[in-house]
Amino acid sequence: MTAMLPAFRIGELRRCSRRPALAPAPSGAISLAMGEPDFPTPPPVIEAAVAALREGNTHYADQKGLRELRAALASRLPPHPGRTWTADDVVVTHGATAALAAVVLAMVGPGDRVVIPEPAYSLYADLVVLAGGTVNFVPLAPDLHWDLDALAAALPGAAMMIFSNPSNPTGIVHREQELEALGELLDGSDVLVVSDEAYHRLVYPGHELTSALEIESLRDRTVYVQTFSKTYAMTGWRVGYLTGPREVVDAAAHAHRTYNGSLNTSVQHAALAALDLPDSVVDAMVDRYRQRRGLVVAQLSGIPGLHLVPPEGAFYGFLRYDADLKSETVARELAERGVMVRAGAEYGPSGEGHVRISFAASEDDLRTGLARIVRYFGLARP
To answer: Is pLDDT above 70 for 333?
Structure first.
């Protein structure tokens, strides 16, 4: 059953949100702040949208998404020994943002406690507060992977756990062993797991992504959230989707159609075209991110006072600094010096003392921006 949505005061949500809008970049500033691919959307995707419009696909689509798109997505989900995925198991949403909102608003009610390992994407906590729930932040281990002992203490009695894998903002890929350990911790409980796997194709050599849907002890309690934004450079197209336990999918579908309605019809035809792209199109973008990752690691390694866990996936570096400065101050002063980053405190209490750097930027901008960061801290290579 869909949970009743509580009344709330806008002021409360504003106080919860730690993610301010970015101020306009000063003239000449370089942005290493945006969590969005800097590549153009592949031409076949654009052409499919144009063709769909010309063919008259300008009316409402099915509230859960075009059946042919949902069937195509279902066919690409990890095999489930006890279940055959079908179009009815998938809801197409207005980006992953709306997928996350749909499941949280459908399944979290007043007083429900939601565990969020942090630093984490700030939308998760905002949605929990919007639904009337309580956020239970659990700090990560020093290597930015999960602190399983801390999770073991936090999970009993929780309604839900939300995480991203690969992680925004840390760039960590949570390993198969971590996911299996989580499954063991949840054995016998009713905790719903929401796995945001938006960056699933952006994983670097030496690391391998295992979806929560591939873990036997998690698959029947996992809501899988996905988007076309990062893989296909389609952020502005706003196409996401979710799947999971049927009763949760149905409840999320109800919330989504209530708040959003059906997704743009021609855009869904474009999404179908994206699924038909050869792997080489995505691989080429991933290879560029890999090169940029190497540049970031090389330029920030060995500098006293700066500490970077090498990103394992996504396109973020979560840079820790020793200077006694608030991360919001650092972000503001770096902007004044010509480089935009995100303050680590936006991503949870443990994010203080960090800034998030996006390497979804050109190599030239990265070199210049990183040099400005190093210069700001008054540091130099030994």
So the answer is: yes
